Automatic annotation (TrEMBL):
Gene3D superfamilies per UniProt: 2-enoyl-CoA Hydratase, Chain A, domain 1, 6.20.330.10
Annotated protein name in UniProt: Signal peptide peptidase SppA, 67K type
Subcellular location: Membrane
Keywords linked to the UniProt accession: Hydrolase, Membrane, Protease, Serine protease
InterPro entries: ClpP/crotonase-like_dom_sf, Pept_S49_pIV, Pept_S49_SppA, Peptidase_S49, S49_SppA_67K_type_N, S49_SppA_C
One GO BP annotation of this record: signal peptide processing
Record family assignment: Belongs to the peptidase S49 family.
Residue ranges of every copy of the Peptidase S49 domain listed in the record: 121-274, 368-520
Lineage, opening ranks: Bacteria, Pseudomonadati, Bacteroidota, Cytophagia, Cytophagales
Active site, renumbered: K189 (proton donor/acceptor), S384 (nucleophile)
Keyword DNA-binding annotated: no
């Protein structure tokens, strides 16, 4: 009886949750349909308000609940931000731009593109205001081009330089009695170090030190120009932690004003010649994307297709956070067969992943460039497998602070035999038809012969990678190999070494593609990827959360360890991947 009642209760709860989810999906769908039809009318003397504290990805994720949540959890697109600024530059009803910038969740190269778009907007002679209660270095990098920069009197500014941090799992694997089996090529291929070290190797520390010095140095150079502060002084202020308060920031000319938000509003009203009781006509990014488009489009029969790959590389279809080789191949085929498409820009934001999936996409790039130009546009990171995607293109465009290179591969397997025996009491036995029928296995040690075979396989894939990279870059193999070995480069170093062709963002890559296709400025239309579907991502995350909660309920204290194991399981086959979970802050 109790068992019956329990099942009935579980069924009722399940039906309730299903109905609740269905209700929200229906409301969201209705809101999405309604918002897609509603056009924004921009009133005269309006201000474009850009909240840059949300997660910023290449392409926005549609969120019909944004108006109700104040933008919390919103994912905004880099393409939307740039498009809005370009449109506002021409819009006679937009008087200026207001930047709400404190903790931008964006990479340095994407921040560079936004900053460049703001600089371009300023050519219209319209004002740009920036305000933050606090500002990180990246936030200040964006705000530094504003005409007026306000910092809250009780707030603060981070100005102490950059730091790169890795997670290391050797201690976790030791506690779980998991034995990592690592096969790699390249002195600098440090992606596997977290599995068998507790800190960075000398080679890894060297490449990361150079990388963050270059990224920070580039930021300092640009800030020095925009704020008219010597670069040496900016570096000294970071070393001495001299920017500790808003007063310090004002004293050293980092900002123009100290003030609360109401004081910023008062200043804006004076700028707009409004009375004290008048309201400022702010237009949010979401609303402005539905306003009249003033940037002229070229003819529809001459297009440049932009294909975006963002996330780790894997085989199959793309999903939230991953580049699926099958999806990219389909998009390249469509562009290749579409007679209206005259050139392709492959936009890449990826730390790499499956070497096989990377090679499959490389082949599709080769087939496409036989018929029309293919230009690679590197975003925040296009390294290892991400570089593999780019190296076969006709030209590669990247920002000076793009993270790229990492031309190297690794294979990693794990022996869980002791984990199962000593932690769970599970043992294994087997029979084989041949000497190595069960190879590779995660429940026994491999023989020296088997280890040697995996190392050779990894070296063969590295040889293919470097050979194709040398051919794509039109340089001797020996020179390319000297730049490889898994070494990570900034875009600035990559250009000096011949690994990329030109500096710039997506707009620059589109210009290069147009020139390659012999299209004149204004004589073509850009075909951007469609906005991501918020509901598909919501369902994916909901199912992922449910799995995580179930794992926590069933395994208790062992759940965090299993999370690590699940991450390792995703690395199937030989990997062309950046150092694991690099964090620059």
């Amino acid at each position: 009886m109790w068992q019956f009642i329990k099942y009935v209760f579980a069924t009722i709860v399940g039906l309730f949750l299903f109905s609740l989810l269905g209700f929200f999906l229906f409301i969201g769908l209705a809101a999405a349909l309604g918002s897609s039809e509603e056009k924004t009318t921009v009133e005269k003397n309006s201000v474009l308000k850009l909240n840059l504290n949300s997660s910023i990805q290449e392409v926005s994720v549609e969120n019909p609940f944004a108006e109700f949540t104040g933008g919390q959890g919103e994912v905004i697109g880099l393409l939307d931000i740039k498009s809005a600024l370009a449109n506002a530059k021409l819009d006679p009803n937009i008087a200026g731009v207001y930047l709400d910038v404190q903790y931008p969740m964006v990479g340095w190269a994407s921040a560079e593109e936004i900053r460049d778009a703001i600089i371009d907007f300023k050519k219209s002679k319209k004002f740009v205001y920036a305000y933050g209660e606090v500002m990180t270095e990246k936030a200040y990098y964006l705000a530094s081009v504003a005409d007026k920069i306000y910092l809250n009197p009780a707030g603060g500014m981070e100005w102490n330089g950059l730091s790169a941090e890795y997670d290391f799992y050797k201690g976790t694997l030791d506690k779980l009695e998991v034995k990592p089996l690592v096969f790699r090529v390249g002195e600098y291929k440090s992606a596997v170090e977290p599995f068998f070290r507790e800190n960075m190797s000398d080679a890894s520390k060297l490449q990361n030190q150079v990388l963050i010095n270059t990224i920070f140095g580039h930021a300092v150079e640009n800030i020095a120009k925009s704020r008219n502060i010597p670069a040496a002084q900016l570096k000294n202020l970071a070393d001495s932690l001299s920017i500790d308060s808003p007063q310090d920031a004002l004293k050293h000319k980092f900002i123009t004003h100290i003030g609360y938000y109401d004081e910023v509003e008062t200043s804006l009203k004076n700028e707009l010649k409004l009375k004290e009781d008048d309201k400022i006509k702010f237009v949010t990014l979401g609303k402005y994307t539905k306003a009249d488009k003033l940037v002229k489009e070229g003819p529809s029969d001459r297009r440049i297709a932009v294909i975006v790959g963002e996330g780790a590389i894997m085989s199959g279809k793309s999903n939230d956070g991953n580049i699926g080789s099958e999806t990219i191949m389909e998009e390249l085929r469509k562009a290749r067969k579409d007679k209206k498409v005259k050139a392709v820009v492959l936009r890449i934001n990826s730390p790499g992943g499956s070497a096989l999936a990377s090679d499959v996409m490389w082949r599709e790039v080769q087939l496409t460039r036989k018929e029309k130009p293919v230009i690679a546009s590197m975003s925040d990171v296009a390294a290892s497998g991400g570089y593999y995607m780019a190296m076969g293109c006709d030209k590669i465009v990247a920002q000076p602070n793009t993270i790229t290179g990492s031309i190297g591969v690794f294979s990693v397997l794990f022996n869980f035999e002791d984990t199962f025996r000593n932690k769970l009491g599970i043992t294994f036995d087997r029979v084989n038809t041949n000497a190595h029928s069960d190879w590779p296995s995660v429940t026994r040690d491999m023989t020296p012969f088997e280890n040697n075979r995996l190392q050779k396989s990894t070296e063969n894939i590295y040889a293919i990678f470097t050979r194709k990279a040398a051919e794509g870059r039109k340089m001797p193999l020996a020179k390319l190999q000297a730049l490889a070995s898994g070494r990570v480069w900034s875009g600035k170093e990559a250009k000096a070494n011949g690994l990329i062709d030109e500096f710039g963002g997506l707009d620059k890559a589109i210009q290069v593609a147009a020139q390659a296709a012999k299209l004149k400025e204004g004589d073509y239309r850009i075909k951007y990827p469609a906005e991501k579907n918020m509901f598909e991502q919501f369902i994916n995350k909901l199912s992922g959360n449910a799995e995580e909660q179930l794992m926590q309920q069933k395994l208790g204290d062992f759940a965090p360890y299993l999370k690590v194991v699940k991450k390792l399981q995703q690395m199937q086959g030989t990997q062309a991947r950046l150092p694991y979970d690099i964090v620059i802050k």
